[in-house]
Amino acid sequence: MAENEITPAEPAAPENPFRVLxxxxxxxxxxxxxxxxxxxxxxxxxxHARRDSLLPLMLLLRDDPRFAFEQCMDICGVDWPENAERxxxxxxxxxxxxxxxxxxxxxxxxxxxxxxxxxIWVTATWYERETWDMYGVVFEGQVDLRRLLTDxxxxxxxxxxxxxxxxxxxxxxxxxxxxxxxxxxxxAQEFRNFDFLSPWEGMTTLPGDEKIHLNRLxxxx
Length: 221
Known about the structure:
With 221 residues, the chain is an alpha/beta fold. The chain is built from five helices and nine strands; from the N terminus they run H-E-E-H-E-E-E-E-H-E-E-E-H-H.
C-alpha cells in the first residue's frame, strides 16, 4: 500500500429499525415516553410510558399514519411486590399497515387507577376486566369492571404474588343449605411429606416379599 493512500472506512452498521421507530414515537409523544427499550435481542420494541399520559399516547399510536397501531391485541399485568408501584400494565399493539408490534408499559400501585383505553380499542374491555380480576388493578373510565375468570363471589386477586396458594374461600355443596355455598378454606388432611425416592430405589423389600427371604433362611419345609 502506498504511503499516502487512504484506507476506505468500513460501512457503518445499519441502525435497528425498532430503535428508529421508538425514537420517532418518543419525539412525537411530547414527554409521554420515559424509556425506549429493545427486548429479545433487539427483535421487539418496548416503550415505558407515564401513566397520566397514557390516553394521548395511545391515540397517537393509533391515529398517526406513521405508526398506525390499529389493534390492541392484549393487556396483561405483572406483579413486582418489592416495587413502590408494584404492578406493570402491559399493552401489546399491532400495526397491520406496517406489520409492526409494540409493547407499551405503565406502572401503578394497588390504590391508583390506570386510564381505560376501551374508548380507543373496544376490545380492551375484556382485557381490562381480566387484569382487574387477576391483579386488582382498577381502570378509570371502565364502566364494566366485573370479574371475568373467577366467580362473582371470589375474594382476592389470584395472580398477585402475595395471594395464598389455598386461596381465602372455597366453593362447595352445603348439605344443610342444600345449595352451593362459599366458606373458609378447610384442609381435610395435613400436607403429606414426600421423600421423592422412587419405590424401586427407596425400598429394598416390597410389602409381602419378606416371606421369600424367611423361606430362604429357614429352608424348605
